[in-house]
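Example 4.3 (complexes with small molecules)
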Amino acid sequence: MKLWLLSFTLLCASNLWAVDISMPPTKSATTANVERGRKLLISRQETSCVLCHRIPGMKEGGEMGPDLSGLSQRMPADQIRQRIADWRAVNPQTFMPAYFSTEGLHNVAKPMKGKTILTEQGLEDILAYLLEVTKGP
Ligand code: HEC
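Answer. The structure with heme C bound is encoded below.
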């Protein structure tokens, strides 16, 4: 099969699955820590999440991405994990960075092959914080 045809097929397939694509807990999920997650979230150098998002419990917050208040009431944890890890799987045009892009998540456009911005533990720590502060009343 011609390569472009294969890429096109993969792109269509990833769009079809876009709505409920999710990522199961990693092996670091059992040691997730809310306080470490909070520190990562406010660290502009490592994550810069607050440049684009308002996040409950944080003074600073940007407007470029959606407000993350009430997040865990909008979607299950595995979907939030996927969105932080690699949102390109859902929206290839996104300007949110893929913080934990790994082999096999999807096969299109992977300029950061082999490298992740967050460690696996960092990803789970951030998720733990977000779940904790957005679980509602
Ligand atoms: C450069 C800006 C930018 C940065 C930095 C960024 N995001 Fe995002 N984020 C977005 C945008 C824009 C969206 C909306 C999705 C889209 O349309 O691409 C989004 C969507 C999300 C969503 C889904 C929210 C919803 O209600 O649908 C979550 C969760 C999220 N981001 C978490 C994070 C976390 C955690 C970090 C840091 C590790 C982060 N983001 C860093 C721009 C950013």
